[in-house]
Automatic annotation (TrEMBL):
Organism: Pandoraea oxalativorans
Name of this chain's protein: Protein Ves
SUPFAM superfamilies from the UniProt entry: RmlC-like cupins
Matches recorded under Pfam families: HutD (PF05962)
Taxonomic path: Bacteria, Pseudomonadati, Pseudomonadota, Betaproteobacteria, Burkholderiales
Length: 209
């Protein structure tokens, strides 16, 4: 279990040079794209194309700042907001985006998960925690990974053995299989409680195919 914050994250230009990505977690590899999987945030302020990532499965969600309309090759246009489900698409598809900014001059922040299709798969969900605790099941298979990112507020994570962790806005919690508390059916379960009235989180699981 590893707590991560802004000092642990790495900023870099988009592959196509049109924006900036902040890497939150990554499994690096040799080759053009340089990763087996990557979890990141990015800012979008002006219309333009996405980078192309052949052989990569992508999921995209909005953290804050407005709405983002995607034009995806071979699909109807889709508009993402902070309350829509993450949108999945192939990285080899031609994609362009048009942001509608909530505040002039303040870019949209989005949340991205990418996995190399021939070896990895992922699931991404976003939640607003209100009232009852949310149960999160993290897989315990070899190399499996759970990643919690707090976009707003503060979340308290409670594990079966009584351990707790608190994650504030802009911070993350990484749970690797090696540190897993074995639960049932190949997963271990933790409970997520909002420590503030408005708490938004993103939950990612990564597993090998």
């Amino acid at each position: 279990m590893q707590a991560l914050g802004p000092a642990d994250f790495l900023k870099m230009p988009w592959k196509n040079g049109q924006g900036v990505t902040t890497e939150l977690a990554v499994a690096r590899r040799a080759g053009e794209d340089g990763f087996d999987w990557r979890i990141s945030t990015a800012t979008v302020a002006v219309p333009g194309p996405f980078s192309v990532f052949a052989g990569i499965d992508r999921s995209l969600a909005i953290v804050r700042g407005g709405t983002l309309t995607l034009n995806v090759e071979g699909r109807p246009d889709v508009t993402l907001t902070t309350r829509t489900a993450p949108y999945a698409f192939g990285g080899e598809l031609a994609v362009s985006s048009t942001p509608a900014l909530e505040t002039d001059g303040v870019p949209i922040d989005d949340f991205n998960v990418m996995t190399r299709r021939d070896g990895w798969q992922h699931a991404l969900t976003q939640h607003r925690l209100e009232g009852d605790a949310l149960t999160w099941a993290v897989p315990t298979a070899a190399d499996a990974l759970g990643f919690l990112y707090c976009a707003q507020g503060r979340v308290r994570v409670t594990f079966h053995d009584g351990r707790t962790a608190t994650v504030s806005a802009g911070h993350a919690l990484r749970i690797d299989e090696a540190d897993a508390i074995e639960g049932f059916d190949g997963v271990h379960v933790c409970e997520l409680h909002a420590d503030t009235p408005l708490t938004d989180i993103f939950l990612t699981t990564l597993t090998r195919r």
